[in-house]
Design a protein that fits this description.
The chain is mostly beta strands. 0% of the residues lie in helices and 49% in strands. The protein has no helices and eleven strands. The strands form two sheets. Strands 2, 4, 5, 6, 9, 10 and 11 form a seven-stranded mixed β-sheet that branches. Strands 1-3-8-7 form a four-stranded antiparallel β-sheet, with no helix packed on it. Strand 7 (71-76) and strand 8 (81-86) form a beta hairpin. The protein is globular, with a radius of gyration of 13 Å. 34% of the residues are buried.
């Protein structure tokens, strides 16, 4: 199982970015997929996540309070990609963003619940 996160960059406050988490060696519809971020000197924190497709009707997409209304997750299971759409970016969103996955997972907010991680993609938001 390999995860590849991409799409980071340097933007201005109020701009948008779309991050991608490409899975290989997996059928993403069977996996919980989550996004976490880590700013310099800070712990990794939950951003958003989706449960595996078989239970998604009972486990709605989940987002951290700090990003609700600005970030959203979408998925293309035919391409094994999960996206994180980030709108109205703020300087405090500056961090390395990581995607994680766990087969048949539902506890999207729990860092320890994820078995697989991709490398980070860096997002820098300037004021």
């Amino acid at each position: 199982v390999q995860l590849q996160a991409s799409g980071g960059g340097s933007v201005q406050t109020g701009d948008s970015l779309t991050l991608s988490c490409q899975g290989s060696g997996v059928t993403f519809s069977d996996y919980m997929v989550g996004w976490f971020r880590q700013a310099p000197g800070k712990a990794r924190e939950f951003v958003g996540g989706i449960a595996w497709s078989g239970v998604s009707s009972s486990y709605p997409d989940s987002y951290a309070e700090s990003v609700k209304g600005r970030f959203s997750i979408s998925r293309d299971y035919t391409k094994n990609i999960v996206y994180l759409q980030m709108n109205n970016l703020k300087p405090e969103d500056t961090a390395a963003y990581f995607c994680g996955a766990e087969k048949w997972g539902t506890q999207v907010t729990m860092f320890a619940a994820y078995d697989f991680w991709g490398q980070g993609t860096k997002v820098t938001v300037s004021s």
